[in-house]
Specification:
This protein is 27% helix and 23% strand. It starts with 10 loop residues before the first helix and ends in a 5-residue tail after the last strand. By secondary structure, the protein is α+β, with helices and mostly antiparallel strands.
Length: 339
Protein backbone atom coordinates (compact mmCIF):
# COMPACT_ATOMS: atom_id res chain seq x y z
CA UNK A 1 0.00 0.00 0.00
CA UNK A 2 1.38 3.37 -0.99
CA UNK A 3 -1.50 5.57 0.25
CA UNK A 4 -3.99 7.71 -1.66
CA UNK A 5 -3.10 8.80 -5.18
CA UNK A 6 -4.69 12.22 -4.76
CA UNK A 7 -3.98 14.66 -1.96
CA UNK A 8 -6.35 16.97 -0.11
CA UNK A 9 -6.68 20.36 -1.79
CA UNK A 10 -6.43 23.57 0.21
CA UNK A 11 -9.19 26.18 0.11
CA UNK A 12 -7.09 28.47 -2.06
CA UNK A 13 -6.33 25.61 -4.48
CA UNK A 14 -10.00 24.74 -4.78
CA UNK A 15 -10.94 28.35 -5.53
CA UNK A 16 -8.10 28.66 -8.02
CA UNK A 17 -9.11 25.49 -9.84
CA UNK A 18 -12.78 26.46 -9.86
CA UNK A 19 -11.89 29.78 -11.46
CA UNK A 20 -9.70 28.12 -14.09
CA UNK A 21 -12.24 25.42 -14.94
CA UNK A 22 -15.53 27.31 -14.47
CA UNK A 23 -14.78 30.61 -16.06
CA UNK A 24 -17.57 29.98 -18.55
CA UNK A 25 -18.39 33.20 -20.40
CA UNK A 26 -22.10 33.82 -20.68
CA UNK A 27 -23.02 32.67 -17.16
CA UNK A 28 -24.08 36.08 -15.91
CA UNK A 29 -25.73 35.69 -12.50
CA UNK A 30 -27.10 33.00 -10.19
CA UNK A 31 -29.46 33.27 -7.25
CA UNK A 32 -29.27 30.68 -4.46
CA UNK A 33 -31.79 30.69 -1.63
CA UNK A 34 -29.41 28.33 0.18
CA UNK A 35 -26.77 31.07 0.24
CA UNK A 36 -29.31 33.88 0.44
CA UNK A 37 -28.22 36.03 -2.46
CA UNK A 38 -26.92 36.49 -5.99
CA UNK A 39 -23.56 35.28 -7.32
CA UNK A 40 -21.91 36.84 -10.37
CA UNK A 41 -18.67 34.82 -10.48
CA UNK A 42 -19.31 31.73 -12.68
CA UNK A 43 -16.73 29.76 -10.68
CA UNK A 44 -18.89 30.07 -7.57
CA UNK A 45 -22.22 29.14 -9.16
CA UNK A 46 -22.59 25.84 -7.35
CA UNK A 47 -25.40 23.64 -6.01
CA UNK A 48 -24.87 21.41 -2.94
CA UNK A 49 -24.06 17.84 -3.93
CA UNK A 50 -26.55 16.52 -1.39
CA UNK A 51 -29.42 18.61 -2.75
CA UNK A 52 -32.07 16.07 -3.72
CA UNK A 53 -32.25 17.85 -7.09
CA UNK A 54 -28.81 16.42 -7.84
CA UNK A 55 -28.85 12.83 -6.60
CA UNK A 56 -32.58 12.01 -6.70
CA UNK A 57 -33.97 14.37 -9.32
CA UNK A 58 -36.43 15.68 -6.75
CA UNK A 59 -36.75 19.13 -8.20
CA UNK A 60 -38.74 21.00 -10.83
CA UNK A 61 -37.69 23.75 -13.20
CA UNK A 62 -38.92 26.21 -15.76
CA UNK A 63 -37.63 28.95 -18.02
CA UNK A 64 -38.47 32.32 -19.47
CA UNK A 65 -36.91 34.94 -21.73
CA UNK A 66 -35.26 38.21 -20.69
CA UNK A 67 -35.99 40.62 -23.51
CA UNK A 68 -35.27 44.34 -23.55
CA UNK A 69 -35.12 44.43 -19.77
CA UNK A 70 -38.43 42.61 -19.40
CA UNK A 71 -39.10 39.07 -18.23
CA UNK A 72 -41.34 37.72 -20.99
CA UNK A 73 -44.19 35.43 -19.87
CA UNK A 74 -42.58 34.79 -16.47
CA UNK A 75 -46.00 34.70 -14.81
CA UNK A 76 -47.23 31.89 -17.08
CA UNK A 77 -44.05 29.88 -16.56
CA UNK A 78 -44.17 30.44 -12.79
CA UNK A 79 -47.72 29.08 -12.65
CA UNK A 80 -46.44 25.91 -14.32
CA UNK A 81 -43.49 25.70 -11.92
CA UNK A 82 -45.80 25.88 -8.91
CA UNK A 83 -48.08 23.22 -10.41
CA UNK A 84 -45.07 20.99 -11.03
CA UNK A 85 -43.82 21.54 -7.47
CA UNK A 86 -47.21 20.57 -6.02
CA UNK A 87 -47.35 17.41 -8.13
CA UNK A 88 -43.77 16.58 -7.08
CA UNK A 89 -44.77 17.11 -3.42
CA UNK A 90 -42.09 19.71 -2.82
CA UNK A 91 -43.18 21.61 0.28
CA UNK A 92 -42.24 25.28 0.48
CA UNK A 93 -43.65 28.55 1.77
CA UNK A 94 -42.83 30.84 -1.18
CA UNK A 95 -45.63 32.62 -3.00
CA UNK A 96 -45.65 33.21 -6.73
CA UNK A 97 -44.69 36.82 -6.01
CA UNK A 98 -41.74 35.72 -3.84
CA UNK A 99 -40.36 33.52 -6.62
CA UNK A 100 -40.86 36.23 -9.26
CA UNK A 101 -38.95 38.68 -7.06
CA UNK A 102 -35.99 36.27 -6.80
CA UNK A 103 -35.91 35.95 -10.59
CA UNK A 104 -36.15 39.72 -10.99
CA UNK A 105 -33.28 40.27 -8.53
CA UNK A 106 -31.10 37.78 -10.41
CA UNK A 107 -31.80 39.49 -13.73
CA UNK A 108 -31.13 42.89 -12.19
CA UNK A 109 -27.68 41.88 -10.94
CA UNK A 110 -26.85 40.23 -14.27
CA UNK A 111 -26.95 43.77 -15.69
CA UNK A 112 -28.07 42.67 -19.15
CA UNK A 113 -31.29 43.43 -20.98
CA UNK A 114 -31.43 40.19 -23.01
CA UNK A 115 -30.79 36.65 -21.87
CA UNK A 116 -32.14 33.21 -21.11
CA UNK A 117 -33.56 32.50 -17.64
CA UNK A 118 -33.74 29.11 -15.93
CA UNK A 119 -34.85 28.38 -12.37
CA UNK A 120 -35.34 25.36 -10.12
CA UNK A 121 -37.41 24.64 -7.02
CA UNK A 122 -35.98 21.67 -5.13
CA UNK A 123 -36.50 19.55 -2.04
CA UNK A 124 -33.17 20.94 -0.85
CA UNK A 125 -29.94 19.53 0.66
CA UNK A 126 -29.66 17.32 3.71
CA UNK A 127 -28.44 13.84 2.81
CA UNK A 128 -28.34 11.08 0.22
CA UNK A 129 -31.38 8.97 1.07
CA UNK A 130 -34.53 9.04 -1.09
CA UNK A 131 -36.53 10.68 1.70
CA UNK A 132 -37.03 14.48 1.55
CA UNK A 133 -37.65 14.39 5.31
CA UNK A 134 -33.89 14.69 5.75
CA UNK A 135 -33.86 17.99 3.84
CA UNK A 136 -33.63 21.01 6.13
CA UNK A 137 -35.18 23.46 3.67
CA UNK A 138 -36.39 23.64 0.07
CA UNK A 139 -34.18 25.61 -2.28
CA UNK A 140 -34.72 27.94 -5.20
CA UNK A 141 -32.00 28.57 -7.75
CA UNK A 142 -32.06 30.87 -10.77
CA UNK A 143 -29.51 31.59 -13.48
CA UNK A 144 -29.29 34.21 -16.21
CA UNK A 145 -27.22 33.18 -19.22
CA UNK A 146 -26.50 34.54 -22.66
CA UNK A 147 -29.22 33.56 -25.15
CA UNK A 148 -28.41 30.28 -26.89
CA UNK A 149 -30.65 28.66 -29.51
CA UNK A 150 -32.54 25.64 -28.18
CA UNK A 151 -30.42 22.59 -28.91
CA UNK A 152 -27.13 24.33 -28.17
CA UNK A 153 -26.24 25.20 -31.75
CA UNK A 154 -25.19 28.60 -33.01
CA UNK A 155 -26.77 27.94 -36.42
CA UNK A 156 -30.28 29.06 -37.31
CA UNK A 157 -32.48 25.98 -37.78
CA UNK A 158 -35.57 28.17 -37.40
CA UNK A 159 -34.80 29.69 -40.79
CA UNK A 160 -33.46 26.62 -42.57
CA UNK A 161 -35.64 23.96 -40.96
CA UNK A 162 -34.59 20.63 -39.49
CA UNK A 163 -34.81 16.93 -40.36
CA UNK A 164 -36.76 14.88 -37.86
CA UNK A 165 -37.09 11.20 -37.01
CA UNK A 166 -39.54 9.01 -35.12
CA UNK A 167 -38.03 7.59 -31.94
CA UNK A 168 -38.68 3.85 -31.68
CA UNK A 169 -36.44 2.44 -28.95
CA UNK A 170 -36.65 5.07 -26.21
CA UNK A 171 -39.85 4.79 -24.15
CA UNK A 172 -42.12 7.72 -23.42
CA UNK A 173 -42.29 9.10 -19.92
CA UNK A 174 -45.16 7.86 -17.76
CA UNK A 175 -47.99 10.44 -17.70
CA UNK A 176 -47.11 11.88 -14.26
CA UNK A 177 -43.48 12.60 -15.17
CA UNK A 178 -44.52 13.89 -18.58
CA UNK A 179 -46.89 16.35 -16.91
CA UNK A 180 -44.39 17.55 -14.28
CA UNK A 181 -41.54 19.70 -15.61
CA UNK A 182 -39.09 17.89 -13.37
CA UNK A 183 -35.36 17.40 -13.38
CA UNK A 184 -35.86 13.77 -14.48
CA UNK A 185 -34.85 14.37 -18.10
CA UNK A 186 -32.84 11.24 -18.89
CA UNK A 187 -35.53 9.94 -21.25
CA UNK A 188 -35.61 13.35 -22.94
CA UNK A 189 -31.87 13.19 -23.51
CA UNK A 190 -32.05 9.63 -24.82
CA UNK A 191 -34.92 10.65 -27.12
CA UNK A 192 -32.75 13.37 -28.62
CA UNK A 193 -29.75 11.07 -28.96
CA UNK A 194 -31.75 8.35 -30.70
CA UNK A 195 -33.26 10.95 -33.02
CA UNK A 196 -29.79 12.10 -34.04
CA UNK A 197 -28.76 8.48 -34.61
CA UNK A 198 -31.73 8.13 -36.96
CA UNK A 199 -30.94 11.31 -38.89
CA UNK A 200 -33.30 13.59 -36.96
CA UNK A 201 -32.80 16.42 -34.49
CA UNK A 202 -35.04 16.37 -31.40
CA UNK A 203 -37.11 13.26 -32.08
CA UNK A 204 -40.84 12.61 -32.43
CA UNK A 205 -42.46 10.25 -29.92
CA UNK A 206 -45.45 8.15 -30.94
CA UNK A 207 -47.38 6.25 -28.26
CA UNK A 208 -48.17 2.53 -28.32
CA UNK A 209 -51.55 3.23 -29.96
CA UNK A 210 -49.91 5.10 -32.83
CA UNK A 211 -50.75 8.63 -31.72
CA UNK A 212 -48.23 11.46 -31.99
CA UNK A 213 -47.15 12.62 -28.53
CA UNK A 214 -44.30 15.16 -28.30
CA UNK A 215 -40.63 15.72 -28.95
CA UNK A 216 -37.84 15.54 -26.37
CA UNK A 217 -38.43 19.11 -25.11
CA UNK A 218 -40.90 20.47 -27.65
CA UNK A 219 -44.51 20.18 -28.72
CA UNK A 220 -45.37 18.86 -32.20
CA UNK A 221 -47.67 20.67 -34.62
CA UNK A 222 -48.93 19.95 -38.14
CA UNK A 223 -50.56 22.02 -40.86
CA UNK A 224 -52.94 19.93 -42.94
CA UNK A 225 -53.63 20.33 -46.63
CA UNK A 226 -56.97 21.85 -45.55
CA UNK A 227 -54.99 24.61 -43.75
CA UNK A 228 -55.88 23.36 -40.25
CA UNK A 229 -53.29 23.74 -37.48
CA UNK A 230 -53.38 20.47 -35.52
CA UNK A 231 -51.56 19.61 -32.30
CA UNK A 232 -52.06 16.75 -29.80
CA UNK A 233 -53.95 17.30 -26.52
CA UNK A 234 -51.92 17.70 -23.32
CA UNK A 235 -52.99 14.33 -21.91
CA UNK A 236 -49.76 12.57 -20.95
CA UNK A 237 -47.45 15.23 -22.43
CA UNK A 238 -46.07 18.55 -21.23
CA UNK A 239 -48.46 21.50 -21.00
CA UNK A 240 -46.38 23.66 -23.34
CA UNK A 241 -46.57 27.41 -22.86
CA UNK A 242 -45.28 28.15 -26.36
CA UNK A 243 -47.76 25.91 -28.19
CA UNK A 244 -50.58 27.49 -26.18
CA UNK A 245 -49.45 30.93 -27.35
CA UNK A 246 -49.08 29.66 -30.92
CA UNK A 247 -52.65 28.35 -30.90
CA UNK A 248 -53.86 31.75 -29.67
CA UNK A 249 -51.89 33.61 -32.35
CA UNK A 250 -52.99 31.19 -35.06
CA UNK A 251 -56.64 31.52 -34.09
CA UNK A 252 -56.61 35.31 -33.68
CA UNK A 253 -54.25 36.33 -36.49
CA UNK A 254 -53.49 33.64 -39.05
CA UNK A 255 -57.13 32.64 -39.46
CA UNK A 256 -58.09 36.30 -39.91
CA UNK A 257 -55.31 36.69 -42.48
CA UNK A 258 -56.56 33.68 -44.41
CA UNK A 259 -53.33 31.73 -43.94
CA UNK A 260 -55.16 29.14 -41.82
CA UNK A 261 -58.74 27.90 -41.87
CA UNK A 262 -58.91 26.77 -38.22
CA UNK A 263 -57.06 25.45 -35.17
CA UNK A 264 -57.63 21.98 -33.75
CA UNK A 265 -56.25 20.24 -30.66
CA UNK A 266 -57.15 16.57 -30.74
CA UNK A 267 -55.49 13.12 -30.88
CA UNK A 268 -53.44 12.67 -34.06
CA UNK A 269 -52.56 9.28 -35.51
CA UNK A 270 -49.07 9.32 -37.00
CA UNK A 271 -50.47 7.43 -39.99
CA UNK A 272 -52.82 10.37 -40.69
CA UNK A 273 -50.09 13.00 -40.97
CA UNK A 274 -47.75 11.46 -43.51
CA UNK A 275 -47.22 11.99 -47.20
CA UNK A 276 -49.74 14.31 -48.86
CA UNK A 277 -51.84 14.78 -45.72
CA UNK A 278 -49.75 17.67 -44.36
CA UNK A 279 -48.13 20.74 -45.87
CA UNK A 280 -46.08 21.77 -42.83
CA UNK A 281 -44.80 20.39 -39.54
CA UNK A 282 -42.93 22.12 -36.75
CA UNK A 283 -41.75 21.73 -33.16
CA UNK A 284 -42.01 24.55 -30.64
CA UNK A 285 -40.93 25.53 -27.13
CA UNK A 286 -38.86 28.00 -25.14
CA UNK A 287 -41.15 31.01 -25.74
CA UNK A 288 -39.81 31.94 -29.18
CA UNK A 289 -38.37 28.73 -30.62
CA UNK A 290 -40.26 27.27 -33.55
CA UNK A 291 -38.42 24.67 -35.64
CA UNK A 292 -39.91 23.92 -39.06
CA UNK A 293 -39.51 20.24 -39.94
CA UNK A 294 -38.55 19.84 -43.59
CA UNK A 295 -38.32 16.04 -43.56
CA UNK A 296 -39.71 13.35 -41.27
CA UNK A 297 -38.12 9.90 -41.34
CA UNK A 298 -36.29 10.98 -44.54
CA UNK A 299 -39.57 11.83 -46.32
CA UNK A 300 -40.01 15.51 -47.30
CA UNK A 301 -42.72 17.42 -45.44
CA UNK A 302 -44.72 19.39 -47.98
CA UNK A 303 -42.28 20.69 -50.57
CA UNK A 304 -39.33 20.14 -48.22
CA UNK A 305 -38.97 23.82 -47.40
CA UNK A 306 -40.01 26.10 -44.54
CA UNK A 307 -43.67 26.93 -45.10
CA UNK A 308 -45.69 30.15 -44.81
CA UNK A 309 -47.41 29.25 -41.53
CA UNK A 310 -44.11 28.58 -39.76
CA UNK A 311 -42.60 31.78 -41.15
CA UNK A 312 -45.55 33.89 -40.04
CA UNK A 313 -45.68 32.37 -36.55
CA UNK A 314 -41.93 32.89 -36.05
CA UNK A 315 -42.42 36.50 -37.08
CA UNK A 316 -45.29 36.99 -34.62
CA UNK A 317 -43.50 35.29 -31.72
CA UNK A 318 -40.35 37.36 -32.20
CA UNK A 319 -42.25 40.61 -32.69
CA UNK A 320 -44.11 40.03 -29.44
CA UNK A 321 -41.21 38.79 -27.34
CA UNK A 322 -38.63 41.27 -28.55
CA UNK A 323 -40.76 44.36 -28.40
CA UNK A 324 -41.84 45.27 -31.92
CA UNK A 325 -45.41 44.22 -31.24
CA UNK A 326 -47.46 44.77 -28.12
CA UNK A 327 -48.24 41.63 -26.17
CA UNK A 328 -50.58 41.49 -23.23
CA UNK A 329 -49.38 43.67 -20.37
CA UNK A 330 -49.12 40.71 -18.01
CA UNK A 331 -46.77 38.98 -20.45
CA UNK A 332 -43.97 41.36 -19.45
CA UNK A 333 -42.47 42.04 -16.03
CA UNK A 334 -40.02 44.94 -16.01
CA UNK A 335 -36.67 44.44 -14.27
CA UNK A 336 -35.49 47.21 -11.94
CA UNK A 337 -31.77 47.59 -12.66
CA UNK A 338 -29.31 49.23 -10.22
CA UNK A 339 -27.91 52.63 -11.16
Amino acid sequence: MTGPSHRVLSESEVLSRLKSRRGQPGYLAMFSSWLGGVITDPALMQIPLDDHLVHRGHGVFDTCTLSGGNLYRLGVHMDRLLTSAALARIEHSWTKEDLIQMVMDTASHARVKDGAVRYWLTAGPGGFSPSPQECDEPCFYCVIIDPVPLGGTRSDPMSAGIPEATVLDTPMKPPLLATIKSNNYLLNVLTHMEAVDRGGTFGVLVDDKGYVAESCVLNVTFITKERVLRTPPFDGILLGTTIRRIMDLADSTLVAEGILASVDQSPILASEVTGDAISEMFLCGGDTHLYPVTSWDQVPVGDGRVGPVAKRLIELLEEEAFGTAAGESNDFISVDYPD
